[in-house]
Specification:
With about 130 residues, this protein is of the alpha+beta class. The protein is built from two helices and six strands, in the order βββαβαββ. Helices cover about 25% and strands about 30% of the residues. α2 links the parallel β4 and β5. α1 packs across α2.
């Protein structure tokens, strides 16, 4: 099956040349989302890691819903933090609220020196239809 490249209405506009998601053989690879509160990539991010994490997951959920899926289809996550030591615990508290114990995706979380447009957190998902 050939890959299908998705741009989802209502999701933030891309900040670079990418699709919101690419689907192949039932696997959906979601591009990392930033904490934009609307489709405009020029709007300011919410303040603080908790608010930014909530917004990133809402943006990812918008992409998933645009493909007829939800957070229950997520099998893997990658999280990138610019202030790892400071933000790891509060980000985890927010993240955990979206996935019930016993149904949490595999996950990697890494500290990075910078993210696009000064975000503190970026998250990407892999989902399965």
């Amino acid at each position: 099956m050939k890959p299908v490249f998705h741009l989802v209405a209502g999701a933030p506009d891309p900040v670079a040349p990418f699709s919101h998601a690419v689907e192949a053989d039932g696997w959906i690879f979601l591009t990392g989302q930033m904490p934009f509160p609307s489709t405009s990539v020029d709007e300011a991010y919410p303040e603080g890691i908790e608010a930014q994490t909530h917004q990133v997951i809402r943006n990812l959920d918008t992409v998933l819903r645009g493909l007829g899926l939800g957070l229950g289809h997520v099998v893997s996550a990658r999280i990138f933090l610019t202030r790892f030591d400071e933000d790891y615990a509060p980000m985890n508290a927010v993240y955990a609220s979206y996935f019930p114990a016993g149904r949490r995706p595999a996950r990697t979380c890494v500290g990075v020196s910078a993210l696009a447009k000064g975000a503190r957190v970026e998250i990407e998902f892999v989902a399965r239809r």
